[in-house]
């Protein structure tokens, strides 16, 4: 496992497929996981926000990890979201994930209660101590109401199993400094920052848009690694219209991803309307058509 890219570079925050009845559709989950890996994803993140973790049960989360692990085998990295507002519950989910075959844990900052930084730090440390799995800290203050402050992140980086960050802080300056100072593997959690964060030493991305355009997003990193920075910038720019519609249109990424892939969402989420679906399909088609243009 690389210390710079412990889970690879190109990770998809995978949707959780449901049957028309609303039940978990493990067969379709396995099919999607296999497709994403074949299309260039180094790893998959299950049971995150995109995976509708607030409305799936603990048993469903575990079943999803087991089913996807069985399909994709030991090669791709498989992380699972275990973060809740309750430290004890989060630690228990972490232990279940380890038994189910996960390679790592995505742990979001405790939400709603807005704990102070000392409590945030204690939460992550207790979860990291609950298993032998490496931890990716999920810093998304826009959803949780609480940021993992840089000073807290520096201390967390001292724990041997806290190795990565899914960065939705929208603070590129702080992220660049923390990459340089801590050695933490920073993964962009915002598609518009995939290339900028990578350029300052980031490890890659955890992307919702990768559910529908995995090859196109990976191509940006491939071009950058090959030394073609102008080409990487062009490819990145081509993904932005779709990313904007999927992630900044006022609808959750889960809804927009499923608008393109099909399948129901769980309430309180509601499916996208026809106009939105048509716009998303148009943006995806434009990206696919542009792929062959040098």
3D architecture notes:
This protein has 294 residues and is α/β, with parallel strands linked by helices. The protein has one domain (10-215): Aldolase class I (TIM Barrel), CATH 3.20.20.70. The chain has helices at 26-38, 58-72, 87-100, 117-130, 141-144, 150-156, 172-182, 194-199, 214-225, 229-247, 253-261, 274-290, and strands at residues 10-13, 43-46, 77-81, 104-108, 135-139, 162-167, 185-188, 204-207. Strands 1-2-3-4-5-6-7-8 form an eight-stranded parallel β-barrel, surrounded by five helices. It is globular. The model has no long low-confidence stretch (mean pLDDT 96).
SSE arrangement:
Blueprint: E1 10-13, H1 26-38, E2 43-46, H2 58-72, E3 77-81, H3 87-100, E4 104-108, H4 117-130, E5 135-139, H5 141-144, H6 150-156, E6 162-167, H7 172-182, E7 185-188, H8 194-199, E8 204-207, H9 214-225, H10 229-247, H11 253-261, H12 274-290
Parallel strand pairs: 1-2, 1-8, 2-3, 3-4, 4-5, 5-6, 6-7, 7-8
Helix pairs in contact: 1-2, 2-3, 3-4, 4-6, 9-10, 10-12
Helix and strand string, N-terminal first? EHEHEHEHEHHEHEHEHHHH
Largest sheet: 8 strands, parallel, barrel
Number of helices: 12
Q: What best-fitting shape do the alpha-carbon axes yield? A: globular
The count of domains is 1
CATH class: Alpha Beta
CATH superfamily caption: Aldolase class I
CATH topology: TIM Barrel
Would you kindly provide a brief summary of this structure?
The chain has 294 residues and is α/β, with parallel strands linked by helices. It is built from 12 helices and 8 strands.
């Amino acid at each position: 496992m690389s210390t710079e890219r412990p889970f690879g570079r190109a990770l998809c925050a995978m949707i959780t497929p449901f049957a028309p009845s609303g039940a978990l559709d493990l067969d379709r989950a396995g099919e999607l996981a296999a497709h994403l890996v074949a299309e260039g994803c180094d790893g998959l993140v299950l049971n995150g926000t995109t995976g509708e973790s607030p409305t799936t049960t603990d048993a469903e989360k575990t079943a999803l990890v087991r089913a996807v692990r069985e399909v994709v085998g030991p090669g791709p990295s498989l992380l699972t979201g275990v973060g809740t507002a309750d430290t004890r519950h989060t630690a228990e989910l972490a232990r279940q994930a380890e038994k189910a075959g996960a390679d790592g844990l995505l742990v979001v900052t405790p939400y709603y209660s807005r704990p102070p930084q000392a409590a945030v730090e204690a939460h992550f440390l207790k979860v990291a101590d609950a298993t032998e799995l490496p931890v990716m800290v999920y810093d998304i203050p826009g959803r949780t109401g609480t940021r993992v402050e840089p000073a807290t992140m520096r201390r967390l980086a001292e724990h041997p199993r806290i190795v990565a960050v899914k960065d939705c802080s929208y603070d590129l300056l702080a992220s660049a400094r923390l990459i340089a100072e801590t050695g933490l593997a920073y993964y962009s959690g915002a598609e518009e920052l995939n290339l900028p964060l990578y350029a300052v030493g980031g490890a890659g991305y955890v992307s919702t848009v990768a559910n529908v355009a995995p090859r196109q997003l990976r191509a940006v990193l491939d071009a950058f690694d090959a030394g073609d920075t102008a080409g990487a910038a062009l490819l990145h720019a081509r993904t932005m219209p779709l990313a904007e519609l999927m992630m900044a249109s006022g609808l959750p990424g889960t809804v927009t991803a499923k608008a393109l892939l099909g399948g129901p969402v769980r309430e309180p989420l509601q499916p996208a309307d026809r106009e939105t679906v048509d716009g998303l399909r148009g943006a995806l088609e434009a990206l696919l058509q542009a792929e062959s243009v040098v």
